[in-house]
Design brief:
Blueprint (H helix, E strand, L loop, with lengths): L1 E3 L2 E10 L4 E10 L7 E2 L1 H4 L5 E6 L7 E5 L6 E5 L7 E4 L4 E6 L7 E5 L4 E4 L7 E4 L2 E8 L10 E9 L2 E8 L22 E3 L2 E8 L2 E8 L4 E3 L8 E8 L6 E6 L5 E7 L6 E12 L5 E3 L1 E3 L7 E7 L2 E7 L7 E2 L20 E4 L13 E2 L8 E8 L8 E5 L7 E4 L3 E6 L4 E6 L7 E5 L7 E4 L6 E6 L8 E7 L7 E6 L6 E2 L5 E5 L11 E8 L5 E2 L9 E4 L7 E3 L3 E3 L5 E3 L17 E4 L3 E3 L8 E4 L6 E7 L5 E3 L3 E10 L6 E5 L5 E4 L9 E4 L4 E11 L2 E12 L5 E4 L13 E4 L8 E3 L2 E3 L3
Parallel strand pairs: 41-44, 53-59
Antiparallel strand pairs: 1-2, 2-3, 3-4, 5-6, 6-7, 7-8, 9-10, 10-11, 11-12, 13-14, 14-15, 16-17, 17-18, 18-19, 20-21, 21-22, 22-23, 23-24, 25-26, 26-27, 27-28, 29-31, 30-31, 31-32, 32-33, 34-35, 35-36, 36-37, 38-39, 39-40, 42-43, 43-45, 46-50, 47-48, 49-51, 52-54, 54-57, 55-56, 55-58, 58-59, ...
């Protein structure tokens, strides 16, 4: 189902349980917000079975329909909001589509046989981009970050256990036009391109090392607290020029730890430990972390504490967390006796993946401060005796509004609330609130009880229409009930209908260096909100306090709130990227949170001896082919700078030196002319010391011939000596000469 202004398009399918497949489909179109529908099967083909419906995110007049690939492989295109269609045959079966975020006609299509195609004509013509592409690991370029707009980031499969990150021009992905932002192989299914950041995983010494590129620059290993041994990492957010990542440590099974980085995504500090995790319906990982819409920096999370799951809230993007205060009274007005930390409010934080059903928790940008969620009051989160709770002040105080499970929806751009009972039984009524859930009016929306399957919210920007769809019985056809709330509202909202509300955290109004004041409708005002009238937020800076700062990398929060160095951290190591004689930004153990303006302190640099030198091949193996380019990758943890030189000795009598390691971000290439096992070394040195690392590379060639040398005359029943020779070269003896190891074959 999809909506564009007054038009609603709906695709229905009939699933035959006997055959185990869809045998019929119908396309419906309404031009009056769902009052009447026209069946369009004749326009798309009476025997055509449709599988998916897409709308261009940049132009809602453009519609694309995909047919069932088991019957035929084709698509139908409409340029007039679904009124007419043109059918185009496909030479491949589409598994998924990715629309360009700005260009309305640019689309990437991923096929069932792992091939990626591109269209710049909204699906009329398609061109192959690349084969062996990893599912869901392809991304459009971003203007301002990438070199050009028409570029694609993708991960391709090289072999079992090895992938490669490449970039391609839109309609020319030949070998000469491919880019390799990271020269080596990466672990399959690890490429993530999100905002200013690119994330990959690289196999190093039998382990997986996470790398990040900021603003499409060189890749560097992500720095976690020293004794963190991640077995999984999920990127949660890249908003506000920071990376929030959920990391599962080696000893965790059903929980993750939450970390936050500085602007480059390199140095991570702990935000919250032991966040609840679960497996999603498609094998994805679901983390119990919810970002509240409309208010920056407010998150809710479920944390495991002594085998109990408890809900915590933060107002400063993870700097401080606290339990939720339980309501003072229940729905009947009885006093609730709940003392922290032994008792508090706990919420289910799963968001619905179905756009037509309500999840366990919901908030809206146009209704700042309002959060609706299902949960319980007690020592821990359970699934028994669940009620519905609402807060109007972003989680400081809560009210119980229903003692059964209900689906709640925002109406009038968050100015009103609609509640529908969540039950397997048929229903007839809905509830409507004009005062943020304090009072509810009951309305009947159908004369006969309806099994509700889903709800379509406001289709237009300023409409007050909701469509409920379901069926009267398990054997009946689909029923759609259109509800127009226009008659309930009295007038368009004016400035007199609004009141101000100030964000606070238990009374503290200065949060992350800002005082924020929002506008919201007064209670019981029945006026229609319009987007151009709505002023979302007014803010003013305020003096910074300790609560506005996070602990910097290598520092840990103490009970009294101070940030002190961890036992493994050497604070002076923060200067390792600096050039001697210049200055670097010294750490005091704190770094500013989002939206806080604080000037860092510059300190003159002192160089460090090189430490943590790493050397490996771009393919992640210790075998290379004769007379083929071998790319060596060199990384250094400490001692970077223009005064540190790097020397790579290839073990065959040749070596090459570089003044600065940054000049070899793309790796060092070399060609071997003889087979053998070579001792390759990399040495980093400056005036304070050096570091050296070795690897042994086996250079092989294709076997072209075998020659057996034996005496021409032999004596019967007496041993003889024969000799085998392997081509194209023969190794004569076991010896080490310089860096080359030779042996008899």
């Amino acid at each position: 189902m999809t909506v564009s202004m007054r038009v609603i398009l709906m695709l229905t399918k009939y699933y035959d349980f006997n055959s185990g497949r869809v045998t019929e489909s119908s396309l419906w179109r309404s031009t009056d917000y769902g009052s009447t529908y026209e069946k369009l099967n004749e326009k798309v083909g009476l025997k055509t079975i449709l599988s998916y419906l897409y709308v261009s995110p940049n132009n809602k007049r453009k519609i694309m329909l995909l047919t069932d690939p088991e019957v035929e492989s084709s698509l139908l295109i409409s340029l007039d909001e679904g009124a007419t269609y043109q059918k185009h045959s496909l030479a491949f079966d589409i598994l998924s589509l990715l629309f360009h975020p700005e260009q309305e006609d640019w689309i990437l299509a991923y096929s069932h046989d792992q091939k990626l195609y591109v269209s710049v004509e909204f699906g009329r013509r398609w061109q192959l981009v690349h084969d062996s592409v990893v599912p869901n690991r392809f991304y459009w370029s971003r203007l301002g970050l990438d070199k050009e707009q028409g570029m694609i980031h993708l991960e391709i499969i090289i072999s079992d256990g090895r992938s490669q990150y490449i970039t391609c021009k839109l309609q020319n992905c030949s070998d000469g036009n491919k880019g390799k932002p990271f020269p080596g192989f990466i672990i399959p299914n690890s490429l993530v391109v999100q905002d200013e950041y690119v994330f990959i995983q690289v196999p190093v010494g039998g382990q997986s090392v996470h790398y990040v590129s900021y603003k499409r620059n060189a890749f560097y290993p992500m720095k976690l607290p020293k004794y963190t041994l991640p077995k999984d990492l999920q990127i949660i957010s890249t908003d506000d020029n920071q990376v929030v990542a959920a990391i599962q440590d080696w000893h965790q099974n059903d929980s993750y730890n939450l970390y936050m980085s500085e602007s480059r995504g390199l140095f991570f500090t702990l935000m919250l430990e032991n966040i609840v995790s679960s497996g999603g319906p498609e094998g994805n990982i679901m983390i119990d972390l919810y970002e509240v819409a409309g208010i920056k920096g407010v998150f809710l999370s479920n944390k495991v504490v002594e085998n109990q799951v408890k809900t915590y809230i933060t107002y400063n993007k993870g700097r401080d967390w606290r339990l939720l205060q339980a309501p003072t009274t229940d729905l009947q007005g009885n006093k609730v006796y709940c003392e922290q930390p032994y008792c508090s409010l706990h919420l289910h934080l799963h968001v619905s993946e179905n756009p037509y059903t309500s999840g366990n928790i919901v908030s809206k940008d146009s209704a700042p401060g309002i959060i609706i969620a299902s949960g319980v009051v007690g020592p821990e989160l359970t699934s028994n005796n669940v009620s519905i709770f609402i807060t109007s002040d972003a989680g400081n105080s809560w009210r119980e509004v229903f003692q059964e499970e209900y689906s709640l929806f925002f109406l009038n751009q968050g100015g009103s609330l609609v509640a529908i009972r969540h039950t397997p039984l048929p229903i007839r009524h809905i509830w409507l609130s004009f005062d943020e859930g304090r009072n509810w009016d009951k309305y009947s929306f159908t004369s006969s009880p309806l099994y509700v399957d889903g709800v379509l919210g406001e289709p237009g920007e300023d409409t007050l229409i909701m469509t409920i769809f379901g069926h009267f019985s398990h054997r009946s056809e689909w029923q759609l009930v259109k509800i127009d709330f226009q008659s309930i509202f009295q007038h368009r909202c004016t400035s007199e209908d609004y009141m101000t509300w100030q964000l606070h955290n238990e009374g503290e109004v200065c949060i992350m260096g800002m005082k924020r004041i929002f506008q919201k409708l007064k209670a019981n005002v029945r006026c229609v909100k319009t987007r151009n009238q709505y002023i979302s937020q007014m803010s003013d800076s305020c003096p910074c306090t300790e609560a506005d700062f996070e602990c910097d990398y290598g520092f840990e929060r103490q009970i009294d709130g101070r940030c002190t160095p961890a036992f493994w951290f050497v604070p002076s190591a923060t200067s390792r990227d600096c050039i001697r004689g210049e200055s670097f930004l010294n750490t005091t153990g704190y770094r500013r949170g989002a939206a806080v303006e604080v000037q860092p302190q510059a300190t003159e640099v002192s160089s460090h001896a090189p430490r943590g030198l790493q050397l490996f091949t771009s393919e992640g193996t210790l075998v290379a082919a004769l007379e083929r380019n071998v790319t060596f990758l060199v990384f250094l943890e400490e001692g970077l700078g223009s005064m540190t030189s790097i020397t790579v000795d290839f073990g065959d009598g040749t070596a090459i030196s570089y003044v600065n390691i940054s000049s070899i971000d793309d790796g060092v290439k070399h060609i071997y002319s003889r087979v053998g096992i070579y001792q390759v070394s990399a040495t980093a040195g400056n005036s304070l010391g050096f570091d050296r690392v070795l690897l042994f590379l086996h250079v092989t060639c294709q076997l072209e011939q075998i020659q057996l040398l034996a005496p021409s005359v032999v004596v019967k029943n007496k041993e003889i000596n024969s000799r085998r020779c392997y081509g194209p070269e023969m190794w004569e003896q076991s010896a080490i000469t310089g860096g080359l190891i030779t042996k008899q074959r």
